[in-house]
């Protein structure tokens, strides 16, 4: 009886053991800040740089115009495409040719009917040659009506084609605008006004600083499967300020470990709305292992990171 009680208690301990595990904080002292995203914004079309609207050190927003390639010829092409579209649309809306062909066919049929009636009443009043001409006129009228309807359909398709030409022309204008794809800081201009730029060549470089990456190395004993997604508190010593804390979450743990000490590289994405964390600044990271953020990390460049939640990851029973 006693042995059965001991076995039962052992089973209960095994079943409850996973839930009894308490998540611990992992300290990563030797960490530093890196840029999480750097964008080299290229030219999309070849041409002369007509305007550069930003300087190094200037903050820009997503979609902001940074530079402009000369678009004089592109504007002319766009205006011509608009005029061609207007002409094509006018032709596609006009049914005058169809109406005229229909009336001409009706007239030919009336004349043929009169000739047939006259010949019935008075034989030989209409020559066979005249009858052939009238029959041919009816057939010609049918053909011209059919051709007019076909031309009307083609005019409609041509108008749609011209609409595509207008879109291409607008796209050509847009491709000569060099705009920022992120909110960030301009750190480099590769070209100045009057210089020639080539498609694919970098014109302006922008760094994303509203969200940075805290990077360091985690000890082998602290590596565990539930590090990914865990909430992180990053502490930095800002000159002239007390220790400042920032929130983020673990987004990468390198599966490769250093052969000497077994450490692995780890980083967390951290919200930096006031731009206090500059690349290269040393920081310390506290990983709240198993502790989730209130929501998953957003993808947009200007969204704030989630705050730490008290919710724990559920342990996995093997």
Low-confidence stretches: 1-22, 295-310
Characterize the biggest β-sheet: 6 strands, antiparallel, barrel
How many DSSP E strands? 13
Number of helices: 4
- State the share of residues found in helices, binned by percent: 25-40%
Might you state the CATH topology name of the largest domain?
Answer: Elongation Factor Tu (Ef-tu), domain 3
The CATH fourth-level homologous superfamily of the largest domain: Efflux pump adaptor protein, beta barrel domain
* Element pattern in H and E: HEEEEHHHEEEEEEEEE
β-sheet strand percentage: 25-35%
CATH class of the largest domain: Mainly Beta
Report how far apart the termini are: 30 Å
Give your account of this protein's structure.
The chain has 4 helices and 13 strands. It is of the alpha+beta class and 318 residues long. The chain has 3 domains: 20-37 and 209-312, Efflux pump adaptor protein, beta barrel domain (Elongation Factor Tu (Ef-tu), domain 3, Beta Barrel); 40-71 and 176-204, RNA polymerase II/Efflux pump adaptor protein, barrel-sandwich hybrid domain (OB fold (Dihydrolipoamide Acetyltransferase, E2P)); 73-174. A hairpin with a 6-residue loop joins strand 10 and strand 11. The model is unreliable at 1-22 and 295-310 (pLDDT under 50).
Short précis:
The protein has 4 helices and 13 strands.
Top keywords for this entry?
318 residues; OB fold (Dihydrolipoamide Acetyltransferase, E2P); elongated; disordered N terminus
Fold blueprint:
Elements: H1 2-20, E1 25-42, E2 47-52, E3 59-60, E4 65-69, H2 72-93, H3 96-121, H4 128-174, E5 177-179, E6 184-189, E7 196-197, E8 202-218, E9 230-236, E10 244-257, E11 264-271, E12 282-293, E13 308-312
Antiparallel strand pairs: 1-8, 1-12, 2-4, 2-7, 3-6, 4-5, 6-8, 8-11, 9-10, 9-12, 10-11, 12-13
Helix pairs in contact: 2-4, 3-4
């Amino acid at each position: 009886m006693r042995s059965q009680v001991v076995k039962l208690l052992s089973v209960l301990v095994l079943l409850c053991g996973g839930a009894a595990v308490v998540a611990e904080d992992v300290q990563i002292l030797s960490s530093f800040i890196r840029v999480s995203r750097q964008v080299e914004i290229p030219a999309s079309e070849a041409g002369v740089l007509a305007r550069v609207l930003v300087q190094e050190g200037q903050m820009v927003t997503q979609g902001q115009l940074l530079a402009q390639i000369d678009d004089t010829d592109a504007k002319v092409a766009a205006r011509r495409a608009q005029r061609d579209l207007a002409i094509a649309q006018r032709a596609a809306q006009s049914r005058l040719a169809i109406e005229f062909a229909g009336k001409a066919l009706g007239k030919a049929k009336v004349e043929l009917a009169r000739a047939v009636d006259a010949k019935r009443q008075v034989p030989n009043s209409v020559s066979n040659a005249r009858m052939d001409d009238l029959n041919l006129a009816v057939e010609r009228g049918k053909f011209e009506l059919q051709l007019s309807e076909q031309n009307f359909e083609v005019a409609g398709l041509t108008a749609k084609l011209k609409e595509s030409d207008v879109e291409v022309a607008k796209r050509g204008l847009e491709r000569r605008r060099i705009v920022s794809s992120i909110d960030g800081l301009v750190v480099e201009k590769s070209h100045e006004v009057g210089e020639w730029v080539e498609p694919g060549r970098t014109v302006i470089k922008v760094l994303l600083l509203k969200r940075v990456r805290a990077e360091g190395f985690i000890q082998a004993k602290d590596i565990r499967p539930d590090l990914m997604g865990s909430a992180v508190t990053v502490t930095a010593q800002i000159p002239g300020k007390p220790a400042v804390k920032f929130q983020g979450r673990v987004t990468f743990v390198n599966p490769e470990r250093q052969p000497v000490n077994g450490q692995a590289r780890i980083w967390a994405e951290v919200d930096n709305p006031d731009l206090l964390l500059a690349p290269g600044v040393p920081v310390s990271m506290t990983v709240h292992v198993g502790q989730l953020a209130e929501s998953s990390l957003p993808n947009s460049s200007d969204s704030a990171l989630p705050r730490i939640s008290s919710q724990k990851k559920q342990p996995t029973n093997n």
